[in-house]
Structures are given as structure tokens and as C-alpha cells.
Amino acid sequence: MTTIDEPGAAAALPLIDISHFRDPAADRAAFLAGLRHAAHEVGFFYVVGHGVPDEITTGIFAVAKEFFALPVEERLAIENIHSPQFRGYTRTGYEYTGGTPDWREQIDIGPEREPVAPGGPAWQRLIGPNQWPAALPGLRETTLAWQAEALRVSREVLRALAAALGQDEGYFDAWFDEEASTHVKIVRYPGRPSAEQDQGVGAHQDYGYLALLQQDAVGGLQVRAADGSWLDATPVPGSFVVNIGEMLEIATRGYLKATHHRVVSPPTGVERFSVPFFLGPRLDAVVAPLELPAELAAGARGVSQDADNPLHAAFGENALVGWLRSHPEVAERWWSDVLAERG
Ligand SMILES: O=C(O)CCC(=O)C(=O)O
Ligand SMILES: [Fe+2]
After folding, report:
1. Ligand 1: which atom is nearest the Cα of residue 206?
2. Residue nearest atom 3 of ligand 1, based on CA coordinates
3. Where is the signal peptide (predicted)?
């Protein structure tokens, strides 16, 4: 990790100015080629030129700091164990990646909906309300304002990706309803509990189309390169980090890759804040491979075959498998019938 000792370290990931996508004076072909390269070769890039007002990005970190500074009883009042939809607060060490606890605490927030009547496919039980902290009423409004901007920017990036893949830029819109599958996480990484325990979050892929991340200046996010080495996603002020999720890997037969990434815990005594946003298709979507232009199809590497993480083209199922695996206590309380059925 270079980010703390060397705050000026050069960024290893490509940087995309998304304002060029709509700028009539910009060279569209060059923009799309740059985006295609970033998404195909690395699967991770910085996005600038997004137009998100500073008060939105500073506001979400301010409210995050306030929330995580609340007495633990007030945080636990919205613990996710109360939510069949895995919404609400997760204590440090209660989320698992690769079977190991992640050293972070967080709030998970999804689309605010009425629960669906029982009887349908299992993933329908992911639909339901959020839990908002009574002790910090402003968090709801600040989060919803941030979420709206994150949705706007990530949908713009998805349109640009569709164009970069030789599709109509609205190609992916068919997989949304009026409320796309969105998921906001507000995260605090405490410093590592000991020198050896440095899993902030273990290596994983994200399951939707795209993730868009606001990170503070501490650093620790790392991206797996094709040769297996880890690159630092060094914080770039004013940027979001965008990465490709599993649904885009499936849709492109691996022309785009859902790149593995992880977070190395900050040193003891240092805390890090981040706010990831995940954009997925509707929960009932079954993502079909798109028709790539021949020159791109030749570069499609196939969908990853990982016995520990088989990818499902049915998004609701893909999302559900991820939730059940990462939050075993919530799964045991609310999903024991589904777990039993699946063995
Ligand atoms: O906090 C970060 O930098 C990344 C978090 C992440 O990858 C995730 O929650 O899926
Ligand atoms: Fe992630």
C-alpha cells in the first residue's frame, strides 16, 4: 500500500472524463476507445467530469462520520439482523468475504419498497424497506441525494459503455424498471486490529453491472491485475472509482471482466471512509449476451469459472447468493428455509 506514505503516488488506473461523452467538441471515437480500453484491459477506472456537486460528496462523508460516532446501541437499533432484506447496520467483523470476517462496519441501503407477498422466487424477499437511524434523521435525506447523483453518473457510464461496445447507448436501459436495482453502502474501516490482520474487505467481484465508489484520501483499495499482482487504486480527489460487475462480464462473454478487488485495512489508529454504489438490472432480469462487433468478439475471454463463485445470469439469484454468503447471521435468521432447501 503506497497511499499513506506517498500521497502523491501516480495513479495506476485509467482516468475517464465522462463529460466528453456529451461534449460535441470532444472526439467521440477517441473517448469511446479510451473507455473501452479501460473497461476491457483493467475493469477499473477513475471517473471525473461527472458534475456531482461538492456539497453532495462532502455531505455524505460528514453524515457517515456522525453515524459511526453514535453510541453503539444507536447503531445497533438499525442492525441488519432486524431486516430480511439485509438492510441496515453491520458491526465490524460480522460480514464475511472468502470465509474470513471483514474489518469494517457499514450501513446497507437499497430501493425503498413494500415487501412482496410470499410465494414467488426466493430473491423476491430481497424487496422491502430500509432501516434509517432515528438518532440521525438527516442521514436519510443526505443519502438519498447522494444516491440520486450516483445513479445518474453510473447510468451515464453504462450508456457510454454500451456505445463503446458498439450498441445503442440505451441498450442496458431495457434491463431497468423505473427504479433500477441500486445499493448504497456507507462504510467505515477501522485501523487494523493487529499487524497481521489486514483484511478490510477480502478479494471479491461485485455482482451488478457497475460499482461507483467515493473514497476518502486514506487509500487501501487494491485491484487485481491480469498478472495476479495488486494495484493500488490511489485516491484521486474529485473522482469516483468505477468497476465492472459480474452482469457486464456475462453480458459481454468476458470482453469486460468483473475484476477482483479488496481493501487493505488502514494502519492501527487510522480510519477510512468509503461509499460504494452498485447498479444492477431489475431483480427479475436474466442477462443475455449482447451481439459484439466482430473485432470485439474476438477479444471476449469467456465468463470466469470459479467454483467458489459461480456466476448466475439471473440477477436476483446472483444477488441473493452474494447476500446469503456475506451475512450468515441474517441468512440464518430470515432465510433458513432457503438455506435448508439448497443444502
Ligand atoms: O471500500 C472500498 O474501497 C471498496 C468496497 C468494495 O469493494 C465493496 O464493498 O464491494
Ligand atoms: Fe466491491
Report:
1. 10
2. 221
3. none
Mutate to test the pocket of ligand 1, among 68, 182, 213, 327 (most ligand atoms within 8 A of CB): 213
Residue 7's pLDDT is: 39
The answer to whether the CB of 153 falls within 8 A of the CB of 263 is no
Q: Which parts of the chain have pLDDT scores under 50? A: 1-9
pLDDT digit string, tens, across residues 197-233 = 999 999 999 989 999 999 999 999 999 998 999 999 9
How would you class 24 by CB atoms within 10 Å of its CB: exposed for 0-12, middle for 13-18, buried for 19 or more?
A: exposed
The whole-angstrom separation of Cα 194 and Cα 268 is: 7
Strand order through the sheet with 44-48: 15-17, 44-48, 240-244, 210-215, 272-280, 181-189, 105-109, 88-90
Neighbouring residues of the ion ligand 2, judged by CB less than 5 Å: 206
The whole-number pLDDT of residue 179 equals 67
* 17, β-bridge pairs: 48
Per-residue model confidence as pLDDT tens digits over 62-79: 999 999 999 999 999 999
What domains sit in the chain, N to C, each tagged with a CATH number?
52-342 (2.60.120.330)
